[in-house]
Design a protein that fits this description.
Layout: H1 2-28, H2 30-40, H3 44-66, H4 70-73, H5 75-91, H6 99-111, H7 113-145, H8 150-176, H9 179-189, H10 192-199, H11 202-218, H12 220-247, H13 254-270, H14 280-291, H15 298-346
Helix pairs in contact: 3-5, 3-12, 3-15, 5-6, 5-15, 6-7, 7-8, 7-11, 7-12, 7-13, 8-11, 11-12, 12-13, 13-14, 14-15
Length: 347
Amino acid sequence: MLKFLAKYSKYIFFLCGLILFIGLINDFGLESIKNNLLKTGWWLVPIIGIWAIVYLLNTLSFCVVLGKDRERVGIKNSLLITISGFAINYITPFASVGGEPYRVYKLKDYIGTPAAVSKVVLYKMIQLFSHFILWLLTILIMLMIFTLSVKMKLALGVMFAIIFSFSLLFIDRHKNGLLGFIYSGVKKLRIKPLIGFFRKREKSIAESDENMKELYNERKGSFWLAVTIEFLARIVSSVEFYFILKSIGYDSSLMQSVYINSISSLFMNIFFFVPLELGIRESSLLLIMKTINITAGIGVFIALINRIREFFWIIVGLLLAQINSKKTLSSSLKSLKNGLENESISI
């Protein structure tokens, strides 16, 4: 039974999410969705457009992480890799991590595989760390602004302590390396398949960890700059919720929009194992709307607009990935041609 659940878990989670998604859509009503979509109209332009700024900030943060290597990679390539990487993450049906191998694959030609792995892992850690800061800030805002029961305050206090502990762990791993830490844990737990996997790559792991530690230990200012830019990207992405609510006649504040974005992202990260976040985003937004006295069903509509925006940037990202791969192929063929010509001249 356990083997069956392990083998088919992602399909089970997907089915549960699909049932929840259909139920929420049915509760809100297809007619209400249609009417709100018509109301949204031209507001889709700023809703989609705000993410161009978010991706630009993500790229700037990534360039800070690259350090001296950014000259070899270039801002333009970094932007292409960033947008395409996020697009692949969106369409990865499980845990949304497909974009990271793609980033490594694109970067290795410029800076080598160990450096590419360390930079990609490091950037992912900085992204998560910026989320932690946002969640901690949101919990403090909730404790200060909302009238909460003692149980709710205790629950938020526990959540704050857990997230704060993870934040300290992340800083420690930035200082001392992550991959070696994971390898040590795998050996202690005696997970044989993973031990074999890591053992074959011990040299690469050590090199990647050295590259990773360099940012915090030797460029601490750059580390905090990258975190700040990523945190700013989280704030800018919250404006999407402000635009969506504005489009259907709700006057929300930027503070409310940050709160909506923060709590919904917390839910989605907790339930990362649900493929495509199906049902999780909708139900989390439904609950969030209740806390700020907005019709709960509007949460389902917001989630649908989120998915329209994602769909647009998925198409853009995949097109950019295709263009980038063609350019890489073209430059490789050109280099091969030049090499053959030089060889024929020498003969």
